[in-house]
Amino acid sequence: MPRFVVPISILPGESLAGVVARAAHENMVTNPHSIFPHLNMPLACLGSLATRYSKQCDELAYFMGVDPNILSTLFYGRVDRHEEGLGSEIDFFGCRLASRCREKQIRRLSPESLRVSPHHRAAWEVKFIHWCPESFEYLLSKCSACGKNFGWGKFAGIHICENCGADIREQTSEFVHESEREIAQLLSGFILDREAAMRLRTSLHEDLRDLSDADLLRIALMLSSGFEWSSNVVNNALCNSDRKSAPSLQSWRRGFSLIRNWPESAYEIIWMNLEVPDEDIYCGRIRKLGPVASHLMAPNTDLTKLLKKVLEGSFSRKGLIASHVSGNCAEWYRPGWLPSIEAKKKHKLTSWTVEQALRYPGVRTVSQDENGTSQDFLHEEDLLGWLEKLKEALDVPEAMRCIGVPEHSVWELLEFGHLKFLTSEIRVLNPRRGFIDSSSVKELGEALLNRCLKPTNEPQNLVALSEAVKLPRSPISPWTTAIRTILNGKLNVWRRDGQMSAYADALLVKPEEFEIAIDGNIEIPEFLEAPILMTYNNAADLLQTSSDTVVQLAKEQKIESEFGGAGRRAVRRSVYCYALSRVSAAGTPHDV
User: Fold this and answer.
1) Which of 188, 205, 280, 345 is packed most tightly, with the most Cβ within 10 A?
2) DSSP state for residue 288 in the 8-state scheme
3) Interval 34-93: pLDDT, tens
């Protein structure tokens, strides 16, 4: 293999293309095609050597007479991550940049720096760095003499225009303004100086430190534009070598200033652009996320995760929690509120349990309708309190034993509001667990005991309440009427000594007073909540007769049953109607 006669040494900061061009010029070679065939690179472009032909490093080093170990540092290794719309990434002297950010075709130059040393700096290849970091002179991409672009088509010397032969060192360009040199140095240092880049990273929020260099630059531009620039605009800005249309240094200064105040700066920008419903009902849908929405849908996983996190942080600052982000809108709710679906998962609840909690008046709920679908929210503190009550809830037999009344009276007390449902009537028809609020049973019992008179001067002719309810002539069992009369203070009651298993067992009354208070005061509830049907035994207790008599009444169709005939259960309302129709009939209630 032939090789150059005149050896060269690689200068600090020099690009690989610049090294090859300078070596060729020193050896009187003017056409790249005279070199590349010898290196098995027939389709090579001088500007793409650093990214495409790292495997030919040894051959190229031998050809130019340089140390291959030094030459290998000028190649840009490819990074595995590949992003939609950005192409591959390269390792640009330790900085991860999109391959598109590097200029391959056009040779950008600084006349001032060329006057110091006529070699091509690698920094001049970064498209979004429009100045020379050494001289702070804006780079030229066109010859002032002929107006044509500088390229790599001929080896005429880095400082010579290959089109017209003009010496670029004699041309002039603008310089970065003194007030902008600090940000220019910061940006170029972030790309070219690994120590400076590390110092910048350590000063940033922990969420930003692990981002790639390219992503940090994108975040800076996003913040600078208030997220108004789309992902494509931001990506193209990093690949724009035209200073007139590229982000200005003022934009970079604003972006780096905001990135140092992350995430507060992002919170402010995001919230300023959110559209929130006028009426705050503690949960709902933010109909527009503003310009940040387009970045949430971008394919860049790292940035998307970061922006979703800062979006949730922005919500949290306003007392909101983002539950789901989709497209350009987001569902949200206040802390302490849970969507019903999330409540099921978090507290391992069944659908029935959540459904009952939504119906319970003590659990604050909100229903949100959106696009024909409905979502329910529950207040978590109320839900947990309700779950504790559910564990302590009583079924009808337990309530009967606790209060000391028959089954029909439990339903009547529920209908009159002296007892409370913990679950809905849907479960009441076939209860697998308690559905009566135990606290309401306790309150009822304590209210009865609080009505008891002091035992001093206690009359001698007292009977138990359970005995007194059997005495009056009444069409139906007067248990409920007796309890309501006591609660209303219209019947004197005394308390029996000792501990009783039921509240009613502790109550004593005067028989004559009891009959006067009960006579003609029987009330029938509306039965809006109680089961439609009642057992024959329950009906017999209500009518103060036997279950055989109830069966006979059903056969005679004096009361309705579930199958229209004798059946097994009677229609509750028909039993009460039959009893009331017998009010004026002769005989005792047992004669029904």
Assistant:
1) 188
2) B
3) 777 777 776 667 888 888 888 889 988 998 889 999 999 999 988 766 555 556 888 888
β-partners of residue 14 are 121
Number of other residues whose CB lies within 10 A of the CB of residue 439: 13
Q: Where are the beta strands (DSSP E) in 247-359?
A: 283-286, 321-326, 329-333, 337-339
- What's the Cα-to-Cα distance from 457 to each of 271, 492, 500, rounded to whole Å? 75, 14, 22
CA distance 106 to 507: 104
Query: How far apart, in whole angstroms, are the C-alpha atoms of residue 184 and residue 234?
Result: 19
Whether 151 contacts 107, CB under 8 Å? yes
CB atoms within 10 A of CB 169: 17
Residue 581's CB is within 10 A of a number of other CB atoms, namely 11
SS3 138: strand
For residue 263, say if its preceding peptide bond is cis, omega within 30 degrees of 0. yes
Alpha carbons 66 and 52: distance in angstroms, whole number: 19
Are residues 121 and 17 in contact, defined by beta-carbon separation less than 8 angstroms? no
To which H or E segment does residue 526 belong?
Answer: none
450 burial (CB, 10 Å; 0-12 / 13-18 / 19+) is: exposed
Percent of the chain with pLDDT over 70: 88
Report residue 288: phi and psi, to 5°: -140, 130
Could you read off the pLDDT of 280-332 as tens digits, one per residue? Answer: 445 566 667 778 877 877 677 788 889 888 888 887 777 777 666 767 777 66
Q: Is 208 helix (H, G, I), strand (E, B) or coil?
A: helix
* Beta-bridge partners for 338: 378
Strands 533-535, 569-571: pairing is: antiparallel
Nearest CA to 203 out of 276, 261, 268 is that of: 261
C-alpha span between 224 and 103 (Å, rounded): 24
The CA-atom distances, in angstroms, between 575 and each of 474, 529, 592 are 14, 16, 12
pLDDT of residue 359: 85
Residue 568 CA from chain centroid, whole number:
53
Q: How far apart are CA 564 and CA 548, in angstroms?
A: 17
Three-state secondary structure along 331-397?
A: EEECCCEEEHHHHHHHHCCCHHHHHHHHHCCCCCEEEEEECCEEEEEEEHHHHHHHHHHHHHCECHH
What are the two backbone dihedrals, phi and then psi, of residue 401, each rounded to the nearest 5 degrees?
A: -65, -40
Contacts of 368 (CB under 8 A, 6+ apart): 281, 283, 284, 285, 374, 375, 376, 377
DSSP assignment letter at 564: S
Return all residues near 589 (Cβ < 8 A) that are at least 6 apart: 473, 474, 475, 476, 543, 544, 545, 582
Residue 525's alpha-carbon distances to 364, 451, 530, 562, in angstroms, are 28, 24, 10, 21
Name the nearest CA neighbour of 419 among 396, 450, 385: 396
CB 249, CB 183: distance < 8 Å: yes
Q: Is the pLDDT of residue 222 over 90?
A: yes
d(C-alpha 553, C-alpha 149), whole Å: 110
The pTM for the full model equals 0.62
In angstroms, the CA 100 to CA 77 distance is: 14
